[in-house]
Specification:
Strand order of the largest sheet: 1-8-7-4-3-9-2
Order of helices and strands: HHHHHHEHEEEEEEEHEEHEHEHEEEHEE
Largest sheet: 7 strands, antiparallel
Number of strands: 17
Helix content: 25-40%
Number of domains: 3
Strand content: 15-25%
Number of helices: 12
Radius of gyration: 36 Å
Length: about 400
């Protein structure tokens, strides 16, 4: 009896048994099951099936596309039916945004490389769509910009130009072009296009190019031009920065075809206030108007903005095709160190501190106008100690 095998012993005892069959899976089936289990884990964690939509993160969107494909393939549904305890395969999901294309294993693996942390046999590579591909492209990883020192001065200069009005921001869309040297605002950060590669045709036939993009926080990314365009379109606060002021802004010799945008005027107060009377030749108000200067100052004696006194116009400059508000901002930024700090009381006895008066000689104001005309104003600041424009350090 001791020589009997386990099977012989069971037969001698009259015990009937059946050998349980363990199903073996092909590599493809193993990948499908592993991929479905990831979807199940997502549904268990979040209490819902993964959704499509640009507002969702890339992994949820990957799972949503994967689930669509599993539902669409009869052999996948049959394979997973016994594992679908949550009923994921039977639920009806929202419509797919883009058509799903069929790629072979090698193509899918190449698309997945660098986007997902896993790329081994457990990854479901047969259910990737063009939605995933575009989503992955838009989420290009940023990395530290090793030569940021050479770009930092550019960002600092652009910030100064924005504050001074030398540059302006425009909603992205009317002009969707992107070229080397362009600046944008994306996600609240300044973005600089440092390099643009050769153009090529994207799968949809539109031109595209690889970009090197530098961000003001010291990072950079290598992404496609159309990906940056899409990001700027999606960002409600996304903006294009205009180029800085260059060329002539004023018409020295007025031509018939010039467009009059307004006039810069320089005023001198006739107030009998002791301090103003003592420094009358030095105190000036610089303003910009789109109408007649005479009309603007007609009620000066009753307006605290004009120090409640009559004024005289000591200089004026006509503007041709210029943004008046921006130009006025340039003057006020340049002469801010010499702003007159004085408080007077209006006719109701309320204290008022006018902001557009400066302790600046008239000849320096005239020099500033000339520098705005030739574009060199961005390189200088006003030095109150020497009462002159000096090169910016």
């Amino acid at each position: 009896m001791s020589n009997l095998s386990d099977d012989d012993l069971l037969r001698e005892l009259g015990v009937e048994y059946e050998v349980a069959r363990v199903r073996s899976y092909t590599p493809r089936e193993e990948r499908i099951i592993a991929g479905f289990e990831e979807i199940q884990q997502f549904a268990k964690k979040h209490g819902r099936i993964p959704q499509h939509g640009e507002e969702n993160d890339i992994f949820e969107r990957l799972y949503a596309v994967r689930l669509d494909r599993l539902r669409a393939q009869e052999d996948c549904r049959a394979l997973l039916a016994s594992l679908d305890s949550q009923g994921l395969l039977s639920e009806q999901e929202t419509k797919q945004i883009d058509p799903v294309t069929t790629l072979d294993d090698d193509e899918l693996l190449a698309e997945l490389e660098g986007i997902l942390a896993t790329s081994d046999i457990t990854e479901l590579r047969h259910v990737r769509s063009q939605v995933e591909i575009r989503t992955a492209e838009e989420i290009a990883n940023r990395e530290k910009c090793k030569d940021f020192a050479q770009f930092q001065p550019l960002f600092e200069q652009v910030e100064r130009e924005l504050k001074s009005g030398d540059r302006q921001t425009r909603p992205f869309g009317k002009d969707a072009s992107i070229n080397t040297g362009n600046f944008f605002i994306l996600g609240g950060q300044l973005v600089y296009v440092a390099e643009k590669g050769e153009e090529f045709k994207a799968p949809n036939g539109h031109p595209d190019a690889r970009l090197r993009v530098i961000y003001s926080n010291g990072t950079e990314s290598n992404l496609l031009l159309r990906s940056l365009q899409r990001a700027l379109y999606k960002d409600e606060a996304g903006r294009r920065l205009t180029d800085p002021i260059n060329g002539e802004l004023f018409s020295a010799d007025w031509e018939d075809d010039d467009i009059l945008s307004g006039t810069i005027y320089v005023l001198r107060s006739l107030s009998d206030h002791p301090f103003i009377a003592e420094h009358r030749e030095l105190i000036h108000k610089i303003g910009v108007t789109g109408g007649k200067v005479e009309t603007r100052i007609a009620n000066a004696a009753h307006d605290a903005t004009y120090l409640l006194a009559e004024v005289e116009v000591v200089a004026s400059y006509k503007l041709a095709s210029v943004n008046r508000t921006k130009l006025e901002g340039i003057f006020h930024r340049i002469f801010a160190p010499a702003q007159l700090k004085i408080t007077i009381h209006d006719r109701f006895g309320h204290p008022v501190s006018p902001k557009e008066w400066f302790l600046v000689p008239l000849n320096v104001i005239d020099e500033a106008v000339s520098r705005i005309q030739d574009g060199s104003i961005i390189n200088v600041v006003y030095d109150p100690k020497t009462a002159s424009l000096v090169e910016r350090l």
